[in-house]
Design goal:
alpha+beta; Serine Threonine Protein Phosphatase 5, Tetratricopeptide repeat; two-stranded antiparallel ribbon; 21 helices; 16 strands; about 40% helix
Amino acid sequence: MRKNINYTLLAILIATGILSCNKYLNTVPDDFLTPTQYYETKDKLNTGLTGIYDILGQAGLYQNYYWAILSSSNDIDYWRLNLTPSTSPLYYNQIASDSYVTGTWNTLYSGINRANAMLAAIDASPVDSATKVPLKAQAQFLRGYYYFLLVSNWGAVPLRLTPTMSVADAPCPKSSIADVYAQVLKDMTEAEPLLPTRAAVGNDAGVRVTNTVAEGILARVCLTMAGEPLKDVSKFADAKFWAQKVIKSGVHSLNPDYRQVFINQCADILEPKESMWEVSFAANTSNNSEKGNLGSLNSIRFTNLDYGYCYGTYGVTKYLWDKVTAISATDLRRDWNMSPFTLGGSTTGTTGVTKSYLSQTTATIWGRYPGKWRREFETYTPKTTMSTINFPILRYADVLLMFAEAENELNGPTDSAYWALNQIRERAQGTGYRITAFTVTNGGSGYTSAPTVTVSSPVQGNTLLTSATVSGGKVTAVSMSSIVNAYYTGQPTITFTGGGGSGATATATLVAVVPTSADVAKGQTQAVFRQLIRDERAVELSQEALRKHDLIRWGILETNMKALAVTLRSNATVLASYQYVAMPCDNVSSKDIFLPIPLTELTLNTALNGQNNPGY
């Protein structure tokens, strides 16, 4: 969907645009199309809008830099490869010439410039208003979103609202943080009532901005404004209003199975009820610029292209394990977000792939890879070192948690706040039955070694690891590991293979899963409930490019990272890459609530007078 764009025409459009900061071209070459002439048909309007959306999937944003570099290195996930670059945002020692910082900045302003070009011309287009209005609303919302990413990552930035040919030709000073946020709110709130509904966008629901998507993002913007560094606490009421509007719409709901949300993203299945807005990566091209890196960087390391190649670039901290275990030892999200196994075996084909399950020792917990997006579920072939997995910008689960947070800050933990939080917790407990024990009903005969035990269908959740004990040629017992998050809808089929014998049979003892067992009980103080929400966001939304920004708006980035450093040092003997995990913790400081303004912008934009953000 994203990339079928006529970039030549788009470039012509931008080249004939108006310079920003109220500086206009004196002449327009008569051998070029004017913006109005370009947008003379519905198809050209759609092409221009697709070009604005296209920014989301570029390397500077959700293909790579923004989520994998600029939003990582927090108390949940870290860069685990033994690399020691002299400077990097991953280690909180970035500089103004950093390529990732510069790349994301330039990508965002490119998206803004494309939106500006379309917004400057669309009103004069001869296309009918019924067609133009929802397209214009999407362009305006996306401009607001790109400015939101700029202001929340860089603070005060140049506010360009008309098309620009060159930064050098159109110097523009910084606007204050408050003024940039005011523009973000203006763009988004003006667009919201004019955006299409989920039903109206049809097959593009989930990758196009709809009215409820705008409402959910507005809740995120307002919560960010309520926190550091702006601290406009009046925005808690607005955050609640927008989140509640999504909830009351009845358009969105949670998938009953937490893991299925991410399997769907791997399999290129849109599910806009929960996954409200995703960045689409192509599943029908060999062009790597169309593909992403979700799952190929932050999943289980394995060098098998057929199964799904992953570099194993990131690790997850024991902090996440502790948070989810404190919620419930049977929470599905633990062994899904932190893979309970490593992959090995054949590096070609899929039949020789093996899974080696991990124990729950401190060393193996620290050694776990992320498991949220598993490339084995990708359906597009041939697979490459990049993935076709969509990136989720906004999920309904996030909307529920934002509502609970805003309501708690306004009124304490009310019934509605408990309801929103507990919906998330109950879903994470799964449904059906859990195995508590096995009973051998027939030991069989002729076994010279322990056979392989397979527990299958009907199952959901994670695979259960089992083993058999043999004595006197018979199977005498079947035991299971501490991997307990496997759920069954009925009595599973248990088979024994290998071991030299035959005839063994067994049954499982099942206990019904009670989702409410993990509910937060009423009667919490506002402070306790606040921490419960923060922990729930860590567990539910891990690796979705939100955690670092949550820590910043809560004013605890440096505090949490320094606390992680203490934990790291106490576990240094079991951490092979200890020094690389500790580096960002040691380097983080108060300056890191913002990134440095790129050197190229400081050099070319003379209105900035060469002044960077504090600390750079």
